[in-house]
Amino acid sequence: MAVQINPSILSADFARLADEAKAVEGADWLHVDVMDNHFVPNLTLGVPIVESLVRATDIPLDCHLMIEDADRWAPQYVEAGAGSVTFHVEAAAAPVRLAREIRAKGARASMALKPATPIEPYEDLLPELDMLLIMTVEPGFGGQAFLDIMLPKIRRTRELISKHGLELWLQVDGGVSASTIEQCAEAGADVFVAGSAVYGAGDPAEAVRALRAQAER
Ligand code: DX5
Ligand code: ZN
């Protein structure tokens, strides 16, 4: 279970995205938060900016879609060049069909759960996925406090992954920082999204290295 650190550009300067991507050299993926002002009460960016970012950086893009009607839009992010596309199960009418379509188009398929969405109803879907994202804040904004009430869900999900002998990665997103990453790793997460903890630091690349060292402990 290799640790991966994915800085979230939600906390970066949107007018300097190419430079902000360069500032986190050594990161495994660049986490791109797509928000539509409907699924969450915030609006960020869409397909054209993802296409530009793909050209601007060698770091693969981990697109987290916080948008309604994921069935319709997620495939466009694969076509835009994202290496991994995460849709919210709460926003997908046909998550199995969508995960298969994302994989068929050549990206890693990932599904996200909001804090109030349990993992248990989706146990049988896990083999269809390359990654599962457990939100550790209510999606919509960076810089929120980590919800430690999500730790049991992370633990139960790791157990389900092991029980089925699956390879899928377990990502956590929201409030991940030097003070919370060790609890997440201990509970079984292996992919860590960090926005404010990376871009709010004086040296973002050093923050990535420090978070990685902590998660590997
Ligand atoms: C929140 C986004 C996160 C956000 C995390 O809805 O999905 O990716 O950027 O920001 P921090 O790490 O500051 O909580
Ligand atoms: Zn995110």
Automatic annotation (TrEMBL):
The keyword Metal-binding applies. Its cofactor is Mn(2+); a divalent metal cation; Fe(2+); Co(2+). Keywords: Carbohydrate metabolism, Cobalt, Isomerase, Manganese, Metal-binding, Zinc. Catalyzes the reversible epimerization of D-ribulose 5-phosphate to D-xylulose 5-phosphate. GO terms for cellular component: cytoplasm. It comes from Streptomyces nodosus. Belongs to the ribulose-phosphate 3-epimerase family. GO terms for biological process: pentose catabolic process; pentose-phosphate shunt. Its EC number is 5.1.3.1. InterPro entries: Aldolase_TIM, Ribul_P_3_epim, Ribul_P_3_epim-like, RibuloseP-bd_barrel. Pfam families: Ribul_P_3_epim (PF00834). One of its GO terms (molecular function) is D-ribulose-phosphate 3-epimerase activity. The active site is at D33 (proton acceptor), D173 (proton donor). Substrate binds at S8, H64, G140, F141, G142, G143, D173, G174, G175, G195, S196. This is Ribulose-phosphate 3-epimerase. Pathway: Carbohydrate degradation. Binds 1 divalent metal cation per subunit. A divalent metal cation binds at H31, D33, H64, D173.
